[in-house]
Amino acid sequence: MTPETLAETHAAAFTLTRPWSAAEFATLLDGADTILAGDVRCFALGRIIVDEAELLTIATHPEHRRRGLAADCMAAWQAEATRRGATRAFLEVASDNLPAISLYHRCGFRRHGLRRGYYRRPGLDAADAILMVCDLP
């Protein structure tokens, strides 16, 4: 996947917040600590920091939702994080993003904290960020 295709999928998936640019994806992909799983339909992107994996974003193109792709991407992302030595993974998610929260619970994540009013979105109330964590096998 190229930074451009990642940015296209991200823009299609994220309509309430600013999608990431190809340049931002290019910078992340240049890092040796980056983990990318999936394809242009759905991808999960994160990084390893010592023995922890941080999920930075997951995006499913709207034309490919409700097919299990996000769960597959998460499983592949978690497996690669484990292979690289991570023992724990964490992420943050908007408190009103119920489909994502449900996915993360199914992937073994549990609530770990809260950042009030973290996601500011034009024309909408700010949403809290739920911090989630899971132990990797």
Automatic annotation (TrEMBL):
<dbReference type="InterPro" id="IPR000182">
    <property type="entry name" value="GNAT_dom"/>
</dbReference>
<feature type="domain" description="N-acetyltransferase">
    <location>
        <begin position="1"/>
        <end position="137"/>
    </location>
</feature>
<protein>
    <submittedName>
        <fullName>Ribosomal-protein-alanine N-acetyltransferase</fullName>
    </submittedName>
</protein>
<dbReference type="InterPro" id="IPR016181">
    <property type="entry name" value="Acyl_CoA_acyltransferase"/>
</dbReference>
<keyword id="KW-0012">Acyltransferase</keyword>
<dbReference type="GO" id="GO:0016747">
    <property type="term" value="F:acyltransferase activity, transferring groups other than amino-acyl groups"/>
</dbReference>
<dbReference type="Pfam" id="PF00583">
    <property type="entry name" value="Acetyltransf_1"/>
</dbReference>
<dbReference type="InterPro" id="IPR050680">
    <property type="entry name" value="YpeA/RimI_acetyltransf"/>
</dbReference>
<keyword id="KW-0808">Transferase</keyword>
